[in-house]
Write a structure and sequence with these properties.
Largest sheet: none
Oligomer: single chain
Number of strands: 0
Keywords: Membrane, Transmembrane, Transmembrane helix
InterPro entries: DUF6463
Number of helices: 6
Amino acid sequence: MNSTKRLLRWASGIMLVLGIGHPTLLALVAWDDISGWVDRGIWAAVPLVLADEGAARTAEFLQNEVTFWAGPGSFAVPLILLGCLTWHLAGRGVAVPAAIGWGLAAWCAVGGVLLVPSPFFAGIVAGALIIVAARQKDRPRASARRRLDA
C-alpha cells in the first residue's frame, strides 16, 4: 500500500470513528428523548414553530431541540459520508483535493475551540492527512514536468 493511500485511509478512519461515535454516544446519553420522538410521531420530533406563537419554550422543548441538533441534525452524517468517499477514492488511487483537508481542519479547529473538551481536534489530524496526501500526489507530476522542461 502506497503512502498516499495509507494517509487517506487513516483520515477516513478518523472521520468514520468521529461520525459514527457521535450519534452512538448521543443514543446512549439521550435515549429517552430519542424514544420520545416515536411516541410523538417522527414528523413532530422537532416542530419548526410552537403551537402557540406566544408560548414560552420549555426546558423539555429545548432539550428535544438539542438532542436533534446533536444527533440526526448534526454534521455526523456528512462526516460519515466524507469518510466513506475518502476511503473509496483512496482505494482507487485518487487523491482527495487539499482544499477538502483545509476545510475539514478549519471546521474542526473552530468546533474544538467552541466546544472544549471535544474530540473535534481529532478531525484536524484527518484534515492534515488529506492535505499531506494531496501534496504527495502532486509531487510526481511536478518532478515529471521538470524533467520534460530540461
